[in-house]
Design brief:
By secondary structure, the protein is mainly alpha-helical. The chain contains 4 helices and 4 strands, in the order H-H-E-E-H-H-E-E. A hairpin with a 2-residue loop joins strand 3 and strand 4. The longest helix has 21 residues.
Amino acid sequence: MHYISKLREEKKSIDSLSRQEIDYIKKVAKDTWNYFDEYMNKENNYLPPDNFQESRRERIVHRTSSTNIGLGLMTIISSYDLKFITLEKALINLENSISTIEKLDKWNRTFIQLV
């Protein structure tokens, strides 16, 4: 009873990371955001493309999936939280993406035709 009644000090996960680890995670986050920022554009209807191939010559596949759409929306929100973009840019990006999502054909509330 004594053990479970003791006050616990909650530690944030980030407190256990070194400065080098934190810098690495921030770089990965920024690189990830840069990908989505570059490709969630008018040409791709403000939705993330399914994939980008670097082999031999750069090639982007102009289709998407519900998983990629969700990830794209999360990168917009996260990029604002991490102060990579302003609130205004985040809201514009979200509005563009959601506007496209609303226009997609659906069957049983599932996309049947993407970009």
